[in-house]
């Protein structure tokens, strides 16, 4: 902002929360309303290989763009990005970490769409939300990634069974009911 009488707007009302030093930063990106988005774009169930490869391509672009990311883990419409413990990515400002990662991932998803869905036009723009969490040590990072992996396994197992039941002739309601019993 130029040095003017309006400088107080920034100085008095904006705040910058800095993430604590010596913590691992994890930014988790998640598709917003992707159940509807996947129906609108006729994703194959339970897992559309094109959609998964598109998500992986977006993650690869993130790794290339932001060298402080040391590992990425994704499932379905979600990706977690672990920044190195000593990162100074945008001075560890929480809002910058979230907004830059989410906006970059989202724009890459839209730009690469035709590479994976050459015969499908985007009917509505995809969008993602994000959250940032700090973890104090490598053991907690390992546990975080294990949690995401277990969650992936449980959800994928359920979805595989659910869609097998639907494809065998059950309604979605009947499939949900059948899986409740298990």
From TrEMBL:
Subcellular location: Nucleus
GO MF entries: GTP binding; magnesium ion binding; tRNA guanylyltransferase activity
CC terms in the record's Gene Ontology section: nucleoplasm
Domain tRNAHis guanylyltransferase catalytic: 6-136
InterPro entries: Thg1_C_dom, tRNAHis_GuaTrfase_cat, tRNAHis_GuaTrfase_Thg1, tRNAHis_GuaTrfase_Thg1_sf
GO process annotations (BP): tRNA modification
Chief site of localization: nucleus
Start and end residues of each Thg1 C-terminal domain: 140-180
Reactions accelerated catalytically: a 5'-end ribonucleotide-tRNA(His) + GTP + ATP + H2O = a 5'-end phospho-guanosine-ribonucleotide-tRNA(His) + AMP + 2 diphosphate + H(+)
Keyword set, alphabetical order: GTP-binding, Magnesium, Metal-binding, Nucleotide-binding, Nucleotidyltransferase, Nucleus, Transferase, tRNA processing
Cofactor(s) the record lists: Mg(2+)
Entry EC number(s): 2.7.7.79
Family to which the UniProt record says this protein belongs: Belongs to the tRNA(His) guanylyltransferase family.
PANTHER family listed in its UniProt record: TRNA(HIS) GUANYLYLTRANSFERASE-RELATED (PTHR12729:SF6)
Function: Adds a GMP to the 5'-end of tRNA(His) after transcription and RNase P cleavage.
Name by which UniProt lists this protein: tRNA(His) guanylyltransferase
Lineage, broadest ranks: Eukaryota, Viridiplantae, Streptophyta, Embryophyta, Tracheophyta
């Amino acid at each position: 902002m130029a040095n003017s009488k309006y400088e107080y707007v920034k100085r008095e009302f904006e705040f910058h929360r800095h993430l604590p030093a010596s913590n691992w930063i994890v930014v988790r990106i998640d598709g917003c309303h992707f159940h509807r988005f996947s129906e609108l774009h006729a994703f194959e169930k339970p897992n559309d290989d094109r959609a998964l490869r598109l998500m992986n391509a977006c993650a690869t672009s993130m790794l290339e763009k932001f060298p402080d990311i040391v590992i990425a883990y994704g499932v379905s419409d979600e990706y977690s990005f672990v920044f190195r413990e000593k990162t100074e990515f945008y001075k560890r400002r929480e809002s910058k970490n979230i907004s830059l990662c989410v906006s970059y991932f989202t724009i890459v998803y839209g730009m690469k769409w035709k590479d994976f869905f050459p015969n499908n036009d985007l009917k509505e723009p995809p969008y993602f939300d994000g959250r940032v969490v700090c973890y104090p040590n490598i053991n907690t990072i390992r546990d975080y990634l294990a949690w995401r992996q277990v969650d992936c396994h449980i959800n994928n197992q359920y979805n595989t069974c659910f869609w097998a039941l639907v494809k065998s002739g059950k309604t979605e309601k009947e499939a949900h009911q059948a899986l409740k019993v298990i």
